[in-house]
Specification:
This protein has about 130 residues and is mostly helical. The chain has 4 helices and 2 strands; from the N terminus they run αααββα. The chain has a two-stranded antiparallel sheet with strand order 1-2.
Length: about 130
């Protein structure tokens, strides 16, 4: 048989809901301060300068293989090393490209994280 909620449980739940609402308001205010920050705007611009070209490069490189195989099969069938043709080398190069892009992103993400941590420290210092 389920336990009937006591008055004390209800008060505790209301207090919990009130604390959650206050935290949400505080976090919203912190986020608005972060969003308005000039350094945050610069961070977003820096991230876009890396992420957008990297994504475009990845998509173009990735879809180049099926396009080349479909439209220029003679080129892609050309043997380069023994019986290994250009299509196989291009397909294998996509692994190298993906790992290289991952490495470059991780390296850049360290810069992004340091800037973001500095912004958060400054905002939290103001709001506390």
């Amino acid at each position: 048989m389920p336990r009937k909620p006591e008055r004390r449980d209800h008060d505790t739940l209301k207090e919990l809901e009130l604390r959650e609402e206050q935290n949400a308001i505080r976090h919203a205010a912190e986020w608005q301060a972060i969003e308005a920050d000039d350094e945050f705007q610069k961070l977003i611009a820096i991230k876009k300068r890396f992420i957008i070209p990297a994504t475009i490069f990845f998509i173009v490189y990735y879809f180049a293989l099926p396009v080349l195989v479909g439209y220029w099969p003679q080129l892609m069938e050309a043997n380069v090393i023994g019986n290994i043709n250009l299509a196989y080398l291009f397909a294998l190069s996509q692994f190298v490209m993906a790992w290289t892009l991952s490495y470059l992103y991780v390296r850049e993400a360290g810069v992004f994280d340091r800037i973001a941590a500095r912004i958060v420290r400054r905002v939290k210092g103001v709001s506390q």
